[in-house]
Each structure stands twice: as structure tokens, then as C-alpha cells.
Specification:
This protein has one domain: Class II aldolase/adducin N-terminal domain (L-fuculose-1-phosphate Aldolase, 3-Layer(aba) Sandwich), CATH 3.40.225. Helices cover 39% and strands 17% of the residues. It is built from 7 helices and 7 strands. Strands 3-2-1-4-7-6-5 form a 7-stranded mixed beta sheet.
């Protein structure tokens, strides 16, 4: 089997960066990274991203889902790989559970206008909402893949579960997650917060192509 030591090392550091921004807690959340057209790295099942080791990285075939290094990938590997298959312009999929965003995911996420700061229309656009489905299930994977397949969709809210975002690289995916968490914090802590007006949002989206 080909050696992917350098990519695995970079992946481990990215997982720790995700945790460093408070986007996951303990074993919550998971990450994937396309390292070749048909090969991806995924965090292992039940691993803590903040303490991930090279031994907790699964190497998987994107088309088949087959793990080629004997590890057990995250139980959400089906939607990770499915998103990578359908979004060839993106290389990273991040499933995260930051506090404020997850709080909103446990309520009525469709009721909010998330355009509180310029970062949302520029980098994220309009989040999709996925109804609650059992974690690790085929049904959740299919619904999440469907929600994320459009090139203008950069984030999905999984009800009573967490969030999924995509990126061209690690920083792109992490930045989108951090910006969305910031917006959710504003929504939940500032009763006087008002969104950007619709005309300005349209202009911002065009500038960012989100």
C-alpha cells in the first residue's frame, strides 16, 4: 500500500485545529479529506479530534467506501464520501457540533435569518436543514448528501445532531464553521440583533459566490 504518512500528519494537525476552535467536544464531530481523486482520509470511529493520532486515521476509497488500512472510519463515513463524490470542487468535509450552532440545530433552525454578519452571505450562503435521522444511518447519509449536492450549498444543519460544512481545504471548511458558530452566538445572545438587509445580502453573495 502506498505511504500517506505526510498527508496523515497534516490531517492529524487539522483535526486538532478543529478542536482548538471549539467546534467539537470529546468524540463529537469528524473530518474527511480528499488526498487523491479516489482516496480520502477520515477520522476513526469514536476518536477525539483534539487528541487524534496517526493510528486513528482511516484511508478509504471514495467510490466504494472500502477502508484500505484496516481502520474503522467514523460512522458518518457514508455522507462524507458521498459529499466528496458529488462535490468534486471540494476536498474537505467537516461534521461539527459547536455549542451555539448545535443549540439552534436542536430547535427550529429554519426560523432564523442567518445573515447577521457579512461572512455568512459571502462564505456560507443559505444553510440547508436536514430533519433528524439516526446517526450513522443510510437515511441520514442520503439526506445529507442530497442537501449538500448543490455547488452553492456550503453548510447543512442536521436537526438535533450538529452541522456539516465543506471546503476546498482545511482552513476553508474550518472558517465556514467558525463564522456560522459566531452568527448563531449573535442570534442566541443578542435580542436586538438585526440581519443585513436583503439587497445588501444579494450583493455580498454575488461577491463571494456563496
Amino acid at each position: 500500500m502506498q505511504s500517506y504518512d505526510s498527508q496523515i500528519s497534516a490531517f492529524v494537525q487539522a483535526c486538532k485545529k478543529v478542536a482548538g476552535y471549539g467546534l467539537v467536544q470529546c468524540s463529537s464531530g469528524n473530518l474527511s479529506w480528499r488526498i487523491e481523486p479516489e482516496v480520502a482520509l477520515l477520522s476513526a470511529s469514536r476518536s477525539w479530534l483534539g487528541e487524534l493520532t496517526a493510528e486513528q486515521v482511516a484511508i478509504c476509497e471514495i467510490q466504494t467506501g472500502t477502508c484500505i488500512n484496516g481502520k474503522t472510519p467514523t460512522c458518518e463515513s457514508v455522507f462524507h464520501l458521498g459529499i466528496l463524490k458529488s462535490r468534486i470542487e471540494m476536498n474537505v468535509v467537516l461534521h461539527f457540533q459547536s455549542p451555539y450552532a448545535t443549540t439552534i440545530a436542536c430547535g427550529r433552525p429554519e426560523a432564523y435569518d442567518y445573515n447577521m454578519t457579512i461572512e455568512v452571505p459571502v462564505y456560507i450562503g443559505t444553510p440547508k436543514v436536514v430533519s433528524y435521522l439516526p446517526p450513522g444511518s443510510k437515511e441520514l447519509a442520503q439526506a445529507t448528501i442530497e442537501a449538500m449536492k448543490d455547488k452553492h450549498t456550503h453548510l447543512a444543519i442536521l436537526k438535533n445532531h450538529g452541522l456539516v460544512t465543506v471546503g476546498k481545504d482545511f482552513n476553508d471548511a474550518i472558517q465556514k464553521a467558525v463564522f456560522f458558530e459566531m452568527t448563531c452566538q449573535i442570534l442566541l445572545t443578542n435580542p436586538n440583533a438585526k440581519p443585513i438587509d436583503a439587497k445588501a445580502v444579494k450583493t455580498l453573495r454575488q461577491s463571494g459566490q456563496a
